[in-house]
Design goal:
This protein is α/β, with parallel strands linked by helices. The protein has helices spanning 9-18, 23-35, 48-64, 105-112, 161-168, 185-191, 225-235, 279-294, 310-325, 345-356, 359-371, 378-398, 424-429, 435-440, 469-483; strands at residues 43-46, 74-78, 116-121, 174-179, 194-197, 217-222, 265-269, 298-302, 404-408, 444-451, 457-463. It contains 15 helices and 11 strands. The protein binds glutamine.
């Protein structure tokens, strides 16, 4: 018999419903896997007692005939979501020991749907990073290794690195991630799993620690498209507590899944063919294009002319919003406080922030403060806002000639720990294919599409028009069925 930890969200939900196994058995199996995987550093807090309590409630619900959509499914929650009475750090030492008195809307929605929580997932500090190395709690390791015998430890990507590793290493069947400029899609690609960032406003940001509020979106990461659809349905929905929440009903994404994409026009944006990207990325992209053709889709070349400005635009807007959002960490309201022996209130703020924030967060606060300063606001922030509008307009126009867009998710496979951490620009370049959809607020998914020559997963991204998560999921399902990606990391332990 396959181990229970080999099962995904749908298989667990259905197995609990059918009585093939109990929710308690599932929660015990995953909790044991989490406890045995400390070397990967995927979790900042483990909460087996919460997973088991939810499982017992699910088993009782089955007995009384009122199962909920996620009854019996244990999940990992990225540490960016406030979880009631459970430490919530956003990967930062400045929030060490902070146990919120409230539950974020998204994690609360999952719990209300019957899911249990296995623990909080490690992440880049305040979700700033592409490798999980900026975490105040140490880097997360990918369960994958290159097949070159050198055995270098690889990053799972970021900022949802703990989330990615947890799913890939079979520590959780599904997890939450957040995506400001690729943090669901890039880690999903690095570890060979699926992750979707929905349309901006689909999932409430309430109780999600703010990084760049106009970009931040929650989404699921799981083993396949169906599991993502199930989770997203439970996570999404209008929330009066978030002023940018979309007041729209949640579609029935799972029930309407269909891999029939015959006649759909798949756009291949020519500006995404950028110099210096390794041949293996072009190859997996070509493979994806062929698979879409095999599925009966029509391939059309399209243009998104402002693509090359997306990365610089993102790295002005995101730090600007971050510098404002992070002003709240003052040693008074949350977590850590450092009081110098001498000095006034300002000295306490400075000492707290100096000790509590890591180097990348400080860099972003400085960039953000600079681009918002009176002398440079027009040259940087204001200009970036205008370019953002042009990028969004590129997409609006492109939907006249295609239904969805297919691109690589990231410009490389997973890299080694330490490989890029000394070079912030090299790290930022990793987001080149992810940030345009973020700036335009569009739904985008990453699907594993093949392995490179070193035996590492490569992902492809599908972007769709606002609110068309169904079409994005369906196109992804067509790709998933044909790519038939079944590789998994060799037992890492
Ligand atoms: N890597 C990007 C950054 O560092 C995106 C992060 C994210 O999506 N949270 O800002």
């Amino acid at each position: 018999m396959t181990s229970l930890t080999d099962l995904g969200v749908a298989a667990i939900r259905d197995g609990v419903r059918d009585g093939t196994f109990s929710a308690r058995e599932v929660a015990e199996a995953f909790s044991a896997a989490v406890a045995g995987a400390k070397a990967l550093n995927a979790f900042t807090v483990e909460t087996p007692e919460l997973a088991l309590a939810a499982a017992d409630a699910a088993d009782a619900a089955r007995a009384s005939g009122d199962l909920k959509p996620l009854s019996g499914v244990p999940l990992g929650i990225k540490d960016l979501f406030a979880t009631k009475d459970v430490q919530t750090t956003a990967g930062s030492r400045i929030l060490e020991g902070f146990a919120p008195r409230y539950e974020s809307t998204v994690s609360g929605n999952l719990l209300a749907a019957g899911a249990g929580m296995l623990g909080k997932l490690n992440m880049d500090e305040f979700a700033m990073g592409s490798s999980n190395e900026t975490s105040g709690y140490g880097p997360v390791l990918s369960p994958w290794r290159r097949n070159d015998g050198r055995n270098a430890a690889l990053t799972p990507g970021g900022s949802s690195g703990g989330s990615a590793t947890a799913v890939a290493a079979r520590l959780a069947p599904g997890v939450t991630g957040t995506d400001t400029g690729g943090s669901i899609r890039q880690p999903a690609a690095f570890v060979g799993i699926t992750g979707i960032k929905p349309t901006y406003g689909r999932c409430s940001r309430w109780g999600m620690v703010a990084f760049a509020s106009s970009l931040d979106q929650a989404g699921p990461m799981a083993r396949d498209v169906r599991d993502c659809a199930i989770m997203l349905e439970a996570m999404a929905g209008f929330d009066a507590k978030d002023s940018t929440s979309l007041d729209l009903p949640v579609p029935r994404w799972e029930a309407n899944l269909s891999s029939d994409i015959r006649g759909k026009r798949i756009g291949i944006p020519r500006e995404y063919r950028i110099e210096g990207v390794p041949a293996e990325i072009d190859q997996v992209w070509e493979r994806g294009i062929q698979l879409m053709r095999d599925a009966g889709a029509e391939i059309v070349e399209v243009s998104l002319p402002h693509t090359r400005y997306a990365l610089p635009t993102y790295y002005i807007i995101a730090p600007a919003e971050a510098s404002s959002n992070l002003a709240r960490y003052d040693g008074v309201r949350y977590g850590k406080r450092v009081s110098p022996e001498r000095g006034n209130l300002t000295d306490m703020y400075e000492a707290t922030r100096a000790a509590g924030f890591g180097a990348e967060v400080k860099r972003r606060i400085m960039i953000g403060t600079y681009v918002l300063s009176a002398g440079f606001y027009d040259a940087y922030f204001n200009q970036a806002q205008k370019v953002r509008a042009l990028i969004a307009r590129d997409f609006e126009r492109v939907w006249e000639s295609c239904d969805y867009i297919l691109t690589p998710t990231a410009p490389s496979a997973a890299f080694a720990l330490g490989e890029k951490s000394a070079d912030p620009i090299a790290m930022y370049l990793n987001d080149v294919f992810a940030v345009p959809a973020s700036l335009a607020g569009l739904p985008a998914i990453s699907v594993p599409a093949g392995l490179n020559g070193e035996g590492l997963p490569l992902g492809l991204q599908i972007v769709g028009p606002a609110l068309d998560e169904q079409g994005v999921l369906n196109t992804a399902l067509a790709l998933e069925e044909r790519a038939a990606f079944t590789a998994r990391p060799e037992a890492w332990w």
